[in-house]
Amino acid sequence: MYETMLLISQAVRSNLPLGEAIRLLVNGDTKNRTNRSLLRFALLLDEGVEPVVAVRKANLPHRLAVLLETAFKSGNFPDYFAELTETERNRSQTFQTLSNLLAYPLLLCAFMPVILGLMVLIAHQFEIVFWDFDWELPAITLMMITLSHTMLQPLTYIILLGGMIIFILLQQLFFPSFWFYIPILGSLFRSLASQKLLRQLSFSLNRGLPTDQALKLAAGSFLMNRAYRKNCLRAAAWAKEGTQFSLLVSFFPLLFPQWLIPFIQTAEKKNAIPSALKHGVDILEKDQSGIAFLFALFFVPFIYFILLSFLIFVVIAMFLPFIKLVTALSG
């Protein structure tokens, strides 16, 4: 999606009408759904439909639609959309870095179903062969057989699926910010979301928009991020009541990194909050690559440890009965 946003932003900032910019971007290619939706959006604009209404009617991809709608509401579409595009570029690059770092361990994870399938098959054969000897199997082998029986029961997967659905529903209802507080990866999610917020606030405040309106506008771009949207709207309500910006930063740690407080306090005295927010974005961008590398540094060995432990478990469970059989026959 970043490439699409970038091309739209570049075309619009070249003083092309948005409809014409979109048709230039699509260039007659209507094979994919996004291009068809963009052309419909351009047609609606040509017909004089309000841009925000046209976004909703064009059936655009949800993320793109939210960002376009937010940019239109800002009152300065080209520049605000450019800020959102830069945020999307950073997000896209970060996840590309993560996918490159995790490609091999995730490929190994893809073999887990194969390993589990082999374990079930092996356990079934063990059960047939060794029960005939009327021997007591080692505890670890019995564990493997029990696990294989459990995996063959449809009820197991129904319970797992039901548990996941219940967990997601409860998390969304009572703790929507859960994913932002998991170790390491949560810090990366928070960094990306905070960069997006700080960029928008810096731009809006620099244009003279009141803090509460700037926060409300930013909340609109977090439509798919309930935790940030809710906190932005709460912060906007506090700002409307006259709460200082530095206090907002301290009262909403999910939205703002706490090391930003002294920068904002200094900026308030100099009436330079937008510059302080921009400085915060620069720091977050420098830190996020380190967080991504740290996540890969811990995650990759963890995956290897899980896979190796499981393989050792299966091998030991397989060979202990054979050792017992050979010992018995030798005796």
Which short descriptors sum up this protein?
331 residues, 0% strand, elongated
Characterization of the model:
With 331 residues, the chain is mainly α. 80% of the residues lie in helices and 0% in strands. The chain is built from 15 helices and no strands. The protein is elongated, with a radius of gyration of 28 Å.
How do you describe this structure in short?
The protein has about 325 residues and is an all-alpha fold.
Please state roughly what percent of the residues sit in beta strands, choosing from under 5%, 5-15%, 15-25%, 25-35%, 35-45% or over 45%: under 5%
What value does the Rg take, in angstroms? 28 Å
Described by strand count, sense and barrel closure, the largest sheet is:
none
Number of helices: 15
Poorly predicted ranges = none
**SSE run:** HHHHHHHHHHHHHHH
Shape: elongated
* Average pLDDT score: 78
- Terminal residue distance: 70 Å
Structural class: mainly alpha
Helix content: over 70%
Number of strands: 0
